[in-house]
């Protein structure tokens, strides 16, 4: 086994790297000190052909971000409940797009399952909390009144 430098897998100075199939064998099972590449998440390819302009290639992400931005604008214009429902629905739409489309561009951050779970749970929580917000909640969950009664009041 040749002497190794500080970076695992690199031969010491003066030693030749093997060529061909022997080059693919790692000398050490340790991870390299410097990461040279990262894997794209599953489905992280372009959502449109490479010849299309950048916004068209990233339309799923832009659709979700546009919905969230519009929801924030509506909240700023003093319609709290409608704006936050739109934000939650945008995240739920992101979960659906991640499930339905094979390639979603930069909307893919992690694995498909993790993205769908994250977008879906956050979207559902935002929608549910905005529908339960005071004053005059649109949705009332009775057991939550009992929980709040024993913990806060």
Automatic annotation (TrEMBL):
**InterPro entries for the chain:** DUF3017
Recorded source organism is: Streptomyces malaysiensis
Q: Tell whether NADP is among the UniProt keywords.
A: no
Any stretches that span the bilayer, and where are they? 59-77, 83-101, 113-133
Keywords assigned: Membrane, Transmembrane, Transmembrane helix
Q: Where is this region: Disordered?
A: 1-22
Taxonomically, which superkingdom? Bacteria
Q: In its UniProt entry, what is this protein called?
A: DUF3017 domain-containing protein
